[in-house]
Amino acid sequence: MMADFIAWVMVLAIAAYACGGGTDYGAGFWDLMAGGAERGKRPRWLVDHAMAPVWEVNNVWLIFVFIVMWTGFPTMFQAVFEAMWLPLALAAVGLVLRGAGFALRKPSRRLAQRRIYGAAFAISSLLTPFFLGAVLGGIAAGQVAVGTPASADAWSNPTSVLTGLLTIAATAFLGAVFLCADARRFGTEDLVGYFRLRALLAFAAIVVLALVALPVTHDDARHVWEGLTGGLGLLMIVLAAVCGLATVLLLVRGSYGWTRYTSVASVALTVGAWGFAQRPYLLPTSLTVAEAAGAPHTLRWLAIVTGIAIVLVGPALVLLYRLDTQGELEPLTDADTLAARAPGDHL
C-alpha cells in the first residue's frame, strides 16, 4: 500500500514537471522558431519577461522525481539509468546549457554573444524534452528491465521517438498558451494573435502525432496501449482531450482567462493516464511496484518527508505561480514598454 502511494507521488511529480517545466521548454521552442534578430525581437522579449520570475523553480519537480525514484524504488532507478544513461546525460547537458544560455544572453552586450547564448537556450529547449520523452517512451515500450544493457534501441524505438515528439508538441502547446495570456497581460495585442496561432498549430501537431502513435503503441507497447484504451486510463485520456479542445475553443473565441488551467489539465491528465496504464508495473512488463519498492521503513520516512515538503514548500510555490501569472513579480519599466512597441507605434 505504501509503495503504491509513493509511486503515485512520483507520477504527480512528473505531471507537475511536465506542466511547469513543459511551459518553459515551450517558451524556448518558440524562441527558437521566432526567426532572425529583428523579426524575433518582440516574441523573444515576451519570452524573457514571461520566464524570468519562475524558470529556475520548475526544475525542483525534476529533482523531486529523481529523489523519489532513487529512494523509493532503487531497483527501477538503477535499471533506468543503466539502460538510458545516454539520453539522460544528453538531457542533463541540455538543462545546463539551457539555463546558462537564458541567464547570460540578456546581460551580454555583444550581438554575437547574445546569439550564441540564445541559440544554446533555444536548441536545448527542443532537445531536452525530446530526450526526456524518449526515456519515458522506452520505459512504456518495455525496453528497460533489470540488467538491460545500454543500447540505442532502448530509446530510439518507434514509441520512444513518437513520445519524444509528442513531448515537444505538448510543451510547445503549453508555452504558446501561456505566452498568449502573458502578451495580453503586458498589453502587446499583436503578440496575442501571434502566439494564439502557434498554440493552435501545436495542438494540431499533438492530434496528428497521437493518431500516428495509436498503431505504433499497439504493436510496440501493448501493455500500455491496453491500459490507455480501457478503464481509468481511457477515462483520463478522454478528459485530457476535452480539456485540450476546451483550450482551443477558448483561444478561438479570444477568452484567455481559463486557457492556462485547461491546457495544464490536459497535460496533467495525460500523465495520469500513463500512470494508470502502466499499473501494476513500473517497468512494463518486468518489474512491478511491489518488486521495485525499497525497504518499508524507507518508504515510511519518504512519505513523511514528502508530507513535510508539501506543507513547507507547497504554499510558497502556489504563491509564486499565482504572483507570476498576475504579473506582480516583475513590473514593466518605461524602457520595457518602449522596447515592446511595434515599429511605427506612437506614444
Structure notes:
The longest helix has 32 residues, at 189-220. α1 packs across α8. This protein has 15 helices and 2 strands. Strands 1-2 form a two-stranded antiparallel ribbon. β1 and β2 form a beta hairpin. It is an all-alpha fold and 347 residues long. It starts with a helix and ends in a 7-residue tail after the last helix.
Short description:
This protein is an all-alpha fold and 347 residues long. The chain has helices spanning 2-32, 41-51, 59-72, 74-83, 85-105, 111-140, 153-156, 158-185, 189-220, 222-228, 231-253, 259-278, 289-292, 296-325, 334-340, and strands spanning 281-283, 287-288.
Give the SSE layout.
Blueprint lengths: L1 H31 L8 H11 L7 H14 L1 H10 L1 H21 L5 H30 L12 H4 L1 H28 L3 H32 L1 H7 L2 H23 L5 H20 L2 E3 L3 E2 H4 L3 H30 L8 H7 L7
Antiparallel strand pairs: 1-2
